[in-house]
Protein backbone atom coordinates (compact mmCIF):
# COMPACT_ATOMS: atom_id res chain seq x y z
CA UNK A 1 0.00 0.00 0.00
CA UNK A 2 1.27 3.46 -0.87
CA UNK A 3 1.72 5.95 1.96
CA UNK A 4 -1.42 7.75 3.06
CA UNK A 5 -1.75 11.40 2.13
CA UNK A 6 -2.77 14.19 4.47
CA UNK A 7 -5.57 15.01 2.03
CA UNK A 8 -7.05 11.52 2.47
CA UNK A 9 -6.93 11.77 6.24
CA UNK A 10 -8.64 15.14 6.13
CA UNK A 11 -11.38 13.75 3.88
CA UNK A 12 -12.00 10.79 6.15
CA UNK A 13 -12.07 12.87 9.34
CA UNK A 14 -14.63 15.23 7.82
CA UNK A 15 -16.94 12.38 6.83
CA UNK A 16 -16.43 10.56 10.15
CA UNK A 17 -17.26 13.68 12.15
CA UNK A 18 -20.23 14.77 10.05
CA UNK A 19 -21.51 11.23 9.33
CA UNK A 20 -22.97 12.71 6.17
CA UNK A 21 -21.17 12.94 2.82
CA UNK A 22 -23.02 16.07 1.72
CA UNK A 23 -22.18 18.04 4.86
CA UNK A 24 -18.59 16.77 4.80
CA UNK A 25 -18.19 17.83 1.16
CA UNK A 26 -19.55 21.29 1.98
CA UNK A 27 -17.17 21.55 4.93
CA UNK A 28 -14.23 20.62 2.66
CA UNK A 29 -15.31 22.95 -0.14
CA UNK A 30 -15.66 20.19 -2.73
CA UNK A 31 -18.34 18.23 -4.55
CA UNK A 32 -19.77 15.08 -3.02
CA UNK A 33 -19.01 12.54 -5.81
CA UNK A 34 -15.19 12.94 -5.69
CA UNK A 35 -15.31 12.78 -1.89
CA UNK A 36 -17.25 9.51 -2.02
CA UNK A 37 -14.77 8.11 -4.55
CA UNK A 38 -11.82 9.17 -2.40
CA UNK A 39 -13.23 7.40 0.68
CA UNK A 40 -13.93 4.22 -1.31
CA UNK A 41 -10.38 4.29 -2.68
CA UNK A 42 -8.99 4.81 0.84
CA UNK A 43 -10.92 1.77 2.08
CA UNK A 44 -9.74 -0.27 -0.90
CA UNK A 45 -6.10 0.60 -0.26
CA UNK A 46 -6.39 -0.13 3.45
CA UNK A 47 -8.35 -3.32 2.84
CA UNK A 48 -10.75 -2.31 5.62
CA UNK A 49 -14.31 -0.99 5.64
CA UNK A 50 -14.24 2.25 7.64
CA UNK A 51 -17.85 3.34 7.17
CA UNK A 52 -21.20 1.61 6.97
CA UNK A 53 -23.39 3.35 4.42
CA UNK A 54 -27.15 3.01 3.94
CA UNK A 55 -29.62 5.20 2.12
CA UNK A 56 -30.49 6.82 5.45
CA UNK A 57 -27.26 7.11 7.41
CA UNK A 58 -23.50 6.81 7.61
CA UNK A 59 -21.88 5.13 10.63
CA UNK A 60 -18.34 4.31 11.68
CA UNK A 61 -17.28 0.69 11.84
CA UNK A 62 -15.09 -0.41 14.78
CA UNK A 63 -11.96 -0.16 12.57
CA UNK A 64 -13.24 3.24 11.44
CA UNK A 65 -13.39 4.46 15.04
CA UNK A 66 -9.78 3.40 15.56
CA UNK A 67 -8.71 5.06 12.31
CA UNK A 68 -10.54 8.29 13.23
CA UNK A 69 -8.59 8.58 16.46
CA UNK A 70 -5.26 8.02 14.73
CA UNK A 71 -6.14 10.21 11.74
CA UNK A 72 -6.96 13.10 14.05
CA UNK A 73 -3.67 12.62 15.87
CA UNK A 74 -1.77 12.54 12.57
CA UNK A 75 -3.46 15.72 11.31
CA UNK A 76 -2.76 17.44 14.63
CA UNK A 77 0.91 16.41 14.37
CA UNK A 78 1.17 17.80 10.83
CA UNK A 79 -0.41 21.10 11.92
CA UNK A 80 1.88 21.29 14.94
CA UNK A 81 4.96 20.68 12.79
CA UNK A 82 3.92 23.51 10.47
CA UNK A 83 3.43 25.91 13.40
CA UNK A 84 6.77 25.00 14.95
CA UNK A 85 8.72 25.40 11.74
CA UNK A 86 7.11 28.79 11.06
CA UNK A 87 7.96 29.85 14.60
CA UNK A 88 11.55 28.63 14.19
CA UNK A 89 11.87 30.60 10.95
CA UNK A 90 10.96 33.94 12.52
CA UNK A 91 13.79 36.46 12.26
CA UNK A 92 13.66 37.08 16.03
CA UNK A 93 13.39 33.80 17.98
CA UNK A 94 11.40 33.69 21.20
CA UNK A 95 9.99 31.33 23.80
CA UNK A 96 6.20 30.94 23.95
CA UNK A 97 4.98 30.22 27.50
CA UNK A 98 1.36 29.14 27.97
CA UNK A 99 -0.46 29.55 31.27
CA UNK A 100 -3.82 30.38 32.79
CA UNK A 101 -3.80 33.88 34.24
CA UNK A 102 -3.16 33.93 38.03
CA UNK A 103 -2.64 30.15 38.14
CA UNK A 104 1.12 30.34 38.59
CA UNK A 105 1.07 30.31 42.43
CA UNK A 106 2.85 33.66 42.26
CA UNK A 107 5.96 32.04 40.76
CA UNK A 108 5.98 33.53 37.28
CA UNK A 109 7.83 36.80 38.04
CA UNK A 110 10.57 34.89 39.86
CA UNK A 111 10.77 32.23 37.15
CA UNK A 112 11.14 34.88 34.45
CA UNK A 113 13.84 36.68 36.45
CA UNK A 114 15.75 33.44 36.93
CA UNK A 115 15.26 32.49 33.29
CA UNK A 116 16.81 35.73 32.04
CA UNK A 117 20.03 34.73 33.80
CA UNK A 118 20.10 31.31 32.09
CA UNK A 119 22.35 30.59 29.14
CA UNK A 120 20.17 30.10 26.06
CA UNK A 121 17.36 32.34 27.30
CA UNK A 122 15.22 34.00 24.62
CA UNK A 123 12.62 36.78 24.77
CA UNK A 124 9.41 35.42 26.33
CA UNK A 125 5.93 35.64 24.83
CA UNK A 126 3.18 34.84 27.33
CA UNK A 127 0.14 33.00 25.96
CA UNK A 128 -2.70 33.43 28.43
CA UNK A 129 -5.60 31.02 28.04
CA UNK A 130 -8.49 29.42 29.83
CA UNK A 131 -8.61 26.28 31.92
CA UNK A 132 -7.19 23.16 30.24
CA UNK A 133 -5.95 25.08 27.16
CA UNK A 134 -2.23 24.87 27.98
CA UNK A 135 -1.50 21.18 27.30
CA UNK A 136 -3.24 21.28 23.88
CA UNK A 137 -1.20 24.39 23.02
CA UNK A 138 1.99 22.39 23.63
CA UNK A 139 0.80 19.49 21.50
CA UNK A 140 -0.40 21.58 18.56
CA UNK A 141 2.70 23.77 18.33
CA UNK A 142 1.26 27.05 19.65
CA UNK A 143 3.45 26.99 22.77
CA UNK A 144 6.97 25.82 23.61
CA UNK A 145 6.56 25.39 27.37
CA UNK A 146 3.67 25.79 29.81
CA UNK A 147 2.71 26.09 33.45
CA UNK A 148 0.07 23.41 34.04
CA UNK A 149 -2.36 22.91 36.91
CA UNK A 150 -3.94 19.58 37.69
CA UNK A 151 -5.82 17.88 36.28
CA UNK A 152 -4.22 18.02 32.82
CA UNK A 153 -3.71 15.61 29.93
CA UNK A 154 -0.02 14.73 29.80
CA UNK A 155 -0.11 12.71 26.57
CA UNK A 156 3.03 13.40 24.48
CA UNK A 157 4.36 15.78 27.13
CA UNK A 158 7.25 15.77 29.57
CA UNK A 159 6.57 17.46 32.89
CA UNK A 160 8.30 18.39 36.12
CA UNK A 161 6.26 19.08 39.30
CA UNK A 162 6.83 22.48 40.86
CA UNK A 163 4.61 22.70 43.93
CA UNK A 164 1.43 21.55 45.62
CA UNK A 165 -0.86 24.02 47.32
CA UNK A 166 -4.15 23.64 49.19
CA UNK A 167 -7.42 24.53 47.54
CA UNK A 168 -10.24 26.40 49.24
CA UNK A 169 -13.92 26.63 48.45
CA UNK A 170 -15.29 30.06 47.55
CA UNK A 171 -18.79 30.65 48.93
CA UNK A 172 -21.11 33.66 49.13
CA UNK A 173 -20.17 35.56 52.29
CA UNK A 174 -23.79 35.26 53.52
CA UNK A 175 -23.94 31.49 52.96
CA UNK A 176 -24.59 29.59 56.23
CA UNK A 177 -21.62 27.33 55.45
CA UNK A 178 -19.35 30.39 55.55
CA UNK A 179 -19.88 30.54 59.32
CA UNK A 180 -17.83 27.36 59.69
CA UNK A 181 -13.99 27.48 59.47
CA UNK A 182 -13.57 24.02 57.94
CA UNK A 183 -15.96 22.11 55.68
CA UNK A 184 -16.12 18.66 54.12
CA UNK A 185 -16.94 17.74 50.52
CA UNK A 186 -20.20 16.22 51.75
CA UNK A 187 -21.28 19.68 52.94
CA UNK A 188 -21.19 20.86 49.32
CA UNK A 189 -23.45 18.13 47.91
CA UNK A 190 -25.95 19.61 45.50
CA UNK A 191 -23.95 22.78 44.92
CA UNK A 192 -22.83 23.44 41.31
CA UNK A 193 -19.38 24.53 40.22
CA UNK A 194 -19.17 27.48 37.80
CA UNK A 195 -19.42 25.16 34.78
CA UNK A 196 -22.54 23.55 36.22
CA UNK A 197 -20.99 20.23 37.25
CA UNK A 198 -21.72 18.94 40.79
CA UNK A 199 -19.22 20.24 43.34
CA UNK A 200 -19.03 16.91 45.16
CA UNK A 201 -17.54 15.25 42.05
CA UNK A 202 -14.58 17.69 42.00
CA UNK A 203 -13.42 17.19 38.44
CA UNK A 204 -14.37 13.52 38.18
CA UNK A 205 -15.88 12.20 34.95
CA UNK A 206 -19.29 13.83 34.44
CA UNK A 207 -22.45 11.88 35.10
CA UNK A 208 -23.90 10.08 32.05
CA UNK A 209 -25.71 12.55 29.84
CA UNK A 210 -24.33 15.60 31.66
CA UNK A 211 -22.38 18.28 29.84
CA UNK A 212 -20.90 21.40 31.45
CA UNK A 213 -23.28 24.34 30.98
CA UNK A 214 -20.69 27.09 31.07
CA UNK A 215 -17.17 27.16 29.66
CA UNK A 216 -14.64 29.88 29.03
CA UNK A 217 -15.61 32.01 32.03
CA UNK A 218 -13.04 34.53 33.20
CA UNK A 219 -12.20 35.09 36.84
CA UNK A 220 -14.49 38.10 37.27
CA UNK A 221 -17.44 36.13 35.88
CA UNK A 222 -16.72 33.21 38.20
CA UNK A 223 -16.55 35.53 41.20
CA UNK A 224 -19.87 37.08 40.24
CA UNK A 225 -21.51 33.65 40.06
CA UNK A 226 -20.19 32.85 43.53
CA UNK A 227 -21.29 36.17 45.03
CA UNK A 228 -24.79 35.69 43.62
CA UNK A 229 -25.04 32.20 45.09
CA UNK A 230 -25.23 30.53 41.68
CA UNK A 231 -22.09 28.44 42.18
CA UNK A 232 -19.26 27.50 44.50
CA UNK A 233 -15.68 27.42 43.29
CA UNK A 234 -12.59 25.44 44.26
CA UNK A 235 -9.61 27.76 44.07
CA UNK A 236 -5.88 27.42 44.90
CA UNK A 237 -4.95 29.35 48.01
CA UNK A 238 -2.57 31.58 46.02
CA UNK A 239 -5.45 32.71 43.78
CA UNK A 240 -7.71 33.33 46.80
CA UNK A 241 -5.03 35.55 48.31
CA UNK A 242 -4.80 37.62 45.14
CA UNK A 243 -8.55 38.12 44.87
CA UNK A 244 -10.17 38.96 48.20
CA UNK A 245 -13.77 40.15 47.71
CA UNK A 246 -16.25 41.32 50.37
CA UNK A 247 -18.97 39.14 48.90
CA UNK A 248 -16.91 35.93 48.94
CA UNK A 249 -15.76 33.76 51.85
CA UNK A 250 -12.90 31.31 51.30
CA UNK A 251 -13.02 28.24 53.53
CA UNK A 252 -10.92 25.12 54.01
CA UNK A 253 -12.33 21.78 52.87
CA UNK A 254 -10.74 18.95 54.82
CA UNK A 255 -11.01 16.29 52.12
CA UNK A 256 -10.45 18.47 49.04
CA UNK A 257 -7.44 17.45 46.97
CA UNK A 258 -4.65 20.03 46.53
CA UNK A 259 -3.77 21.89 43.35
CA UNK A 260 -0.58 20.71 41.67
CA UNK A 261 1.49 23.06 39.51
CA UNK A 262 3.92 21.66 36.94
CA UNK A 263 6.04 22.88 34.06
CA UNK A 264 5.48 20.95 30.82
CA UNK A 265 6.94 20.80 27.32
CA UNK A 266 6.54 18.57 24.23
CA UNK A 267 8.23 15.20 24.36
CA UNK A 268 11.36 15.17 22.26
CA UNK A 269 11.95 18.91 22.52
CA UNK A 270 15.64 19.75 22.10
CA UNK A 271 15.28 23.50 22.57
CA UNK A 272 17.98 25.03 24.80
CA UNK A 273 15.52 27.83 25.63
CA UNK A 274 12.92 25.33 26.87
CA UNK A 275 15.55 23.52 28.94
CA UNK A 276 16.63 26.85 30.43
CA UNK A 277 13.05 27.75 31.36
CA UNK A 278 12.51 24.36 33.01
CA UNK A 279 15.71 24.76 35.02
CA UNK A 280 14.63 28.21 36.14
CA UNK A 281 11.13 27.05 37.12
CA UNK A 282 12.37 24.05 39.08
CA UNK A 283 15.04 26.13 40.79
CA UNK A 284 12.50 28.73 41.93
CA UNK A 285 10.10 26.06 43.17
CA UNK A 286 12.80 24.26 45.14
CA UNK A 287 13.50 27.47 47.04
CA UNK A 288 9.91 27.82 48.25
CA UNK A 289 8.51 26.67 51.56
CA UNK A 290 5.09 25.03 51.85
CA UNK A 291 2.11 27.28 51.21
CA UNK A 292 -0.22 27.76 54.17
CA UNK A 293 -3.98 27.53 53.81
CA UNK A 294 -4.99 30.76 55.53
CA UNK A 295 -6.15 33.67 53.38
How would you portray this structure in words?
Strands 4-3-5-11-6 form a five-stranded mixed β-sheet. It has a four-stranded mixed β-sheet with strand order 8-10-7-9. The protein has helices spanning 6-18, 21-28, 32-46, 62-88, 108-116, 134-139, 219-227, 237-242, 272-286; strands at residues 51-53, 58-60, 95-100, 124-129, 145-149, 157-165, 167-172, 182-183, 233-236, 248-253, 259-266. The chain has 295 residues and is an alpha/beta fold. Helix 1 (6-18) packs across helix 2. It contains nine helices and eleven strands. The radius of gyration is 24 Å and the shape is flat. The protein has three domains: 6-86, Winged helix-like DNA-binding domain superfamily/Winged helix DNA-binding domain (Arc Repressor Mutant, subunit A, Orthogonal Bundle), CATH 1.10.10.10; 90-165 and 259-286, Periplasmic binding protein-like II (D-Maltodextrin-Binding Protein, domain 2); 167-253, Periplasmic binding protein-like II (D-Maltodextrin-Binding Protein, domain 2), CATH 3.40.190. The model is unreliable at 205-212 (pLDDT under 50). 37% of the residues lie in helices and 20% in strands.
